[in-house]
Amino acid sequence: MKTPLLIPLCALFCYACAEVDPKDCGMAVCSTQVDTVYLHVRDTLQQPVALDTFKLTNMLDRTPVAAPLADSVLWKKMCATGDYIFLTDAFVKGHENTRVVIEFTGILRQRTIVRHAVTFDIDCCHISPTYGELTVIVY
Predict the structure, then answer these.
(1) What is the pLDDT of residues 5-28, one digit of tens each?
(2) Pairing relationship of beta strands 135-138 and 36-43 according to DSSP bridges
(3) Count: domains in the chain
(4) 79, 80, 115, 134: which could form a disulfide with 50 (CB 3.0–4.6 Å)?
(5) How far is CA 92 from CA 35, 38, 48, 61, 119, in A?
(6) Can you give the residue range of the structural domain that contains 56?
(7) How far apart are CA 52 and CA 107, in angstroms?
(8) How far is CA 134 from the centre of its chain?
């Protein structure tokens, strides 16, 4: 009686384990976890640096990258801790299966005090920093 159920289950298992083209994100199953990468900006005493603003640039084509939106509470927290949202998984859409170099430019009192690039690998679901430090010391 259980044998008829076994065949469809085996077929489903084999289909689920079939190799999927890594460039085809249409069949990708992504977790609901959203990755967020922070850039930690510190002074020479390892104290957090409160920036006035920052901008992000895709270094491959020199286009601006929309900085993750931060409400005033989140912005105050980022300034207090010196930990700024660099990139999130929201950046994946339109950049699937690519490698990008994103430059973070931090501005304080109308002066650029941080200019730092990080390389990210992007798959169908998530971003992963692969080259570049995530802590910057401001002198």
Answers:
(1) 444 444 444 444 444 445 678 788
(2) parallel
(3) 1
(4) 79
(5) 11, 16, 29, 17, 14
(6) 28-138
(7) 6
(8) 12
Give 30-62 pLDDT, tens digit per residue. 887 788 999 999 999 999 999 999 999 999 999
Tokens of 10: 């085996």
Which two tokens mark 40? 């930690």
Whether residue 2 is contained in a domain is answered as no
Chain Cα centroid distance, residue 100? 11
Judged by DSSP in three states, 21 sits in coil
Q: Are 50 and 93 in contact (CB under 8 A)?
A: no
- Considering the domain boundaries, does residue 15 fall inside one? no
The domain spanning residue 58 has which CATH number?
Answer: 2.60.40
Write down the pLDDT at residue 5.
47
| 49: Cα separation from own chain's centroid | 21
